[in-house]
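Dear support,

I submitted the protein below through the web form. The confirmation email said the job was done, but the results page showed an empty box. After a refresh the structure appeared. I'm attaching both so you can tell me whether what I see now is the final result or a partial one.
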Amino acid sequence: MVGREAGMAPEPATTTEDPAGATPEAQAIEALVRAGRPRDAIAACAAAYAAPIGRLCMAFTGSQAESEELVQETLIAALCAIGEYRGEGSLKAWLFGIARRLAGRHVELRARRDARLRLAPDPARGPDAGELALAREEAERARAALAKLKPSEREAMVLRYDAGLAFRDVAAACGVDEATARKRVSRALARLRADLGEE
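What the results page shows now:
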């Protein structure tokens, strides 16, 4: 369900938007919410946004399996809470806000759990083939660079470039104003370029 393991798209996905900024896809989902069809609305959200939500969760967790679970948890939580959606900001931003909170909580709980565990290395695991090893090394470098960002900058960066949210929606998902969202993304880009160069 989730796409790349490694990194982020260099530019946000382009979609055809109306002057108000909502894609036809988003307008259709909003119409389902207004029509009192929450299950259909969340099913449409799953089809439209599962992959970018998964990439957001991947940026938090570094694990495809965990990110896929978090996508499911996000959609379930959205279904349970859709009655609270008031149309302030886009439904997409609201959905990503839920994913962000769940992923942050998951990482915090995992860190507490891991602090209590001591994992031994697996001696049965052999070396990887050359190309696979190189791909994993690049993915690890990208993850390490992301991990060095402040959490607020990392999530703003992923929401903007991986999820393709407009800055106003990044701001809504993160609970800040648009100027702050722009500053977070700008700082994150500068830090990543310093760590990764032109990669």
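Response: this is the final, complete result; the empty box was a page-load delay. The chain has one domain: 24-117+142-196.
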